[in-house]
Amino acid sequence: MSTKRPHISDHKWEQVLKSMDRREFIVTSAAAGVLTMVPRFAQAAADTYRLGLLLPVTGTGANYADGGIKAVMNATAAINAKGGFLGKHPIEVSYRDTHTKPDIAAREARDLISRENVQTIVGTYSSACAMAIQEIIHERKILHLAATSNSSKIVNENFTPYTYQFCPNSKMQSGSVVVAVAEMIKKNGWKTYVTIGQDYEWGRDTQKGFVTALARKSPATKLKKELWFKLGETEFSSYISAIMASKPDFAYGAIAGKDNRTFIRQAQAMGLFKRVAYPGGLISVTEMQQQRKSLPRGMIGLARCPFFAHLDQPLMQKYIKMHRAKHDAYPTDWACMHYDAIYGLEQAIDKIGNIGTEAVKAALKGATMDTCRGKATFRDCNNQLNIPAGYVGAVWDSPDYPFPIFNPDTMIIVKAEEVWTPTCDDVRKLQKKRA
To answer: Which of 164, 319, 389, 400 is most open to solvent, judged by the fewest CB atoms within 10 Å of its CB?
Structure first.
């Protein structure tokens, strides 16, 4: 099998390069799928903290990963302006494009560890990619900060003590939707539904979480049909027709990334949302910004880390100010979660006063830290941060922004503890044994 890297066009690399300030970093390579950025004032090599960043600029996750790339570059540049971690360890960032494919993510993770000697890997957007690199980071004892990859298996069945999850896992996320949908079922007398999802790890796990949780919450509500499509699907008419032909009371979608944008546009054009309720689909700040004119107002959606829900938090205000100054835009959910990952790493390093991987891992274990969503604590048994499980709200035109947000008067914020796996004993029963 060839190990040649897939070609990445100059246009794709330009997207990544726009995410950084050329005055703050030196690009040491930008070819053959490799991009390494070194702070201009880097000290001796022994003092440098090497960070690997695995996110896609190609594939269905690229529109979400854009915010993550920008956040990591903004945060590391700000830390480097103070001399780096502890004021003396400048951060060198080595970026790789995963193409939203597990085999490529695994190959790039190995390369980052073997050739770039990274101490921490941030990424990967795709849960399938995250699980693929977990085997490698566990074997090589490298820290892994999962800022957006959120299959529950990452912290449960596939758990490794080297992975720390800064986003709500899929069971938490789907559970938060169930809290809101169960109320709608009572109010509207809904009895049947269908699901549509991306046919890969995250889509399958999210759909299963929703169906399982809803069966407990509302056992009389029946699932009529499950629809699955491949990643990167561009034509949804047959799926949309199948949903309408089933005549359900509502539909639930486990869809993210570019596929989500395409589905919503085509479903709206075909009149799906006028005929079938569609509560709880992923509508992050990315969708709100990119589809600001076309998103149906009043649609009930789910977000993971919307900036407008935590304007009272000092770190959120910091991220908003930083992001707007660099990009003239508000940070997306995906950006906010990556800011939390980098500054969470900084907090752990500040606490112990060194950058050794094992020491940092131990410092993160069960740690309480400041995040853009308020103070949050890693669950001791699986390194899941207890940030809100989900934000469920109605798309609404705000006078304060040039794009819609969730109506703050009706938005529901569900706590992690309400919907995650109840006890650590339950969690440990799911986790596989590792050497």
So the answer is: 400
